Amino acid sequence: MTEGKVDFELVSPERLLVSQPVDMVVVPGGDGDFGVLPGHAPLISTVRSGVIEIYEGSAITDRIFVAGGFAEVTAERCTVLAELAMPVAEIDAARTEQQLREAREAESQAKNDEERGAAERLARLAEAKLEAVRRVAVH
C-alpha cells in the first residue's frame, strides 16, 4: 500500500479493469453508496448497479459503471468483483435506449415467466446504464 492511499482493484469476469492506489473510492453498495479511505473498517458488501467513482485528492478521476457483484474492504484495500463493469464514457446512450425499448417490448411479448424475467433484467440493466450516463452528465 502506498502511504495515505487505498489499493483499489476492480475485476469483472472479462478482465482486471483497475488496479491502483487511490485517495478514495466510492462504491454503490447494496445498502447505499459507501466511500473507502485508508484505514477503513473491514467490510464485505453486495454491489448494486451504479457508478464507482475514483478520487485523487478531491477530484473524481474515473467513473466506472458496475452491475452487481461484491466488495471486500480492509484497512489497506478495496476489491470489487463486478458481474459487469465498463467505463461510463464507453456507454452509448442511444444504443442503450434502443436496448431498453427492445427489452420492454420483449417483456410485453413474453410467453412465460422465464422470458419475462430475462427481459426485466435486461431492462433494469439498460435503465441503470442510462442513469449512470445522466448522472455523469450532471457532474
Structure, described:
- This protein is an alpha+beta fold.
- The chain folds into two domains: 6-88, Sandwich (ATP Synthase, domain 1), CATH 2.60.15; 91-138.
- Helix content is 30%, strand content 42%.
- It is built from two helices and ten strands.
- It has helices spanning 93-108, 113-138, and strands at 6-11, 16-22, 24-29, 32-36, 43-47, 50-56, 59-66, 69-73, 77-82, 85-87.
- It has a five-stranded mixed β-sheet, with no helix packed on it.
- Helix 1 (93-108) runs antiparallel to helix 2.
- The protein is elongated.
- The model has no long low-confidence stretch (mean pLDDT 92).
Give a quick set of tags describing it.
139 residues, alpha+beta, ATP Synthase, domain 1, 2 domains, five-stranded mixed β-sheet, five-stranded antiparallel β-sheet, 2 helices, 30% helix, elongated
